[in-house]
Amino acid sequence: MGNMVASSREALREFFSLYPTFSYNPGAPSTDEFYRMCKTFGWKRDNPARESAYQSFQDALVSAFNYIYGSDANDLASWRGLCAALEISPVPTNVQDAKIAFESVHVNLVDLVDTGRTGIKVRKFASVNDLRVYTRNSGKIFPREHAYAGGMLKHLLREISGTYEGQNQASRRGSGYSRRRRSRGF
Predict the structure, then answer these.
(1) pLDDT band per the 50, 70, 90 thresholds, residue 151
(2) Does residue 162 lie within any of the structural domains?
(3) Residues annotated as region Disordered (predicted)?
């Protein structure tokens, strides 16, 4: 399946339309629909078709995020949109204050992408560890290192394993970071 690189409100619908025999429910959480599609097609984890579909699904998640929330971490309107989606008040009045405020905001980014379609309120977690547990249990894993991830997305990503806590943190390479330990973000 081809990569979806353009930011699009309909990126997830476009992804699922690549599988016309699957009956996509746009009102359901996207990850639930992906796993349901895998079950429908009988794809196990090591199936090349599933792996290809998963990569395209992750492209669609990033595309949808960039469309909904923006990709420029220096755009105050993007930060205000996130504040509205997460019911954060008071809304920061400048980009620097917004970045600082969001350093302590821990949300599942798949849920953040889905909230406008599903109507399900995005849960805010008290810690990265609480978010990590939820993400692992739900399977709602957002691609950590993605070619099309914009600055907004990179600022909000947290690490499932290891110590990565967003782009403003200290260098990972100097603190025991290794290629073998990299994992997906959320």
Answers:
(1) confident
(2) yes
(3) 165-186
